[in-house]
Amino acid sequence: MADPIEQGKETAARKAVEDHFDPTARYIGIGSGSTIVFVVQAIKDRNEDLSRILFVPTGHQSRQLIVKAGLQPIQYDSLPSGVLLDVAFDGADEVDEDLNCIKGGGACLYQEKLVATRARKFICVADQRKLQSRLLSKWEKIPIEVEPLAVHSVLESLAALGSQEAIIRSLPMEKSGPIKTDQDNFIVDAKFKHPLLPKPTKAEGVQGTKEDRQWPVETLAKEIKQIEGVLSVGLFCGKNGLEAEKAGERAGGQKPVAAYFGMEDGSVVIRKAGEMDVVVNKQGEERSKDSLSG
Known about the structure:
Elements: H1 4-20, E1 27-30, H2 34-44, E2 54-57, H3 60-68, E3 72-73, E4 87-90, E5 94-95, E6 101-102, H4 109-117, E7 122-127, E8 141-146, H5 151-160, E9 167-168, E10 186-191, H6 217-225, E11 230-233, E12 235-236, H7 241-246, E13 258-262, E14 268-272, E15 278-280, E16 286-288, H8 289-293
Helix pairs in contact: 1-2
């Protein structure tokens, strides 16, 4: 019997590709993780001429997926100056009601952020477990990519921000040492006491200590990024690509413009910026989540 979680990933991937893949695109980002396997397959299954499209991987695994599918990869640092990706597909460890994401569970954090911030549209594809109202609801830790030389001072700084249980991510066999990213850095997984607030509130800072503070996502991301030795923070927040482009910024959007979640019943929940979640059933019929509950 097929795993309903894996089926959900495939259903979400196919719907996301159907809605956002453009065969006239020139550059497309391909992320990392188990869900992206289905995205690449959905692109390949369209049976269109893909020979002029260059696919930008976020790491070794996604490059192998691209090559195995017969698609043409291009490394991030080989992109022409000033060029934006038409779209980037990637997964997430958790997504909140404002489309802020936790990413980096697969240790491809820095390259994932490079690709997301270079894309006009970042499209997130995930299963139902990643659909939450606030970050750190189910996924307990924020991945942080850290220069190995600075890792212990980074842990001390994280403790001062309230993450008393931040740890260096290790390989399954502890004697094998810490996991290393494609950039040869360490990943630190940082726990915080409370789920993160999607947006700052007027009550922000009321609590007296950072250790017990309910952090807004973007505020915490900025605090962590300022720590010397931190290369990248696994909080994807702020503007999305379309908002950054509208603001006249050449790049810099981190959040997805839409997230697709495959559900166990075969439906797909679509979350878009500033809109009510939509449920697409097996027959392709769309309804808002409010109308379903009513």
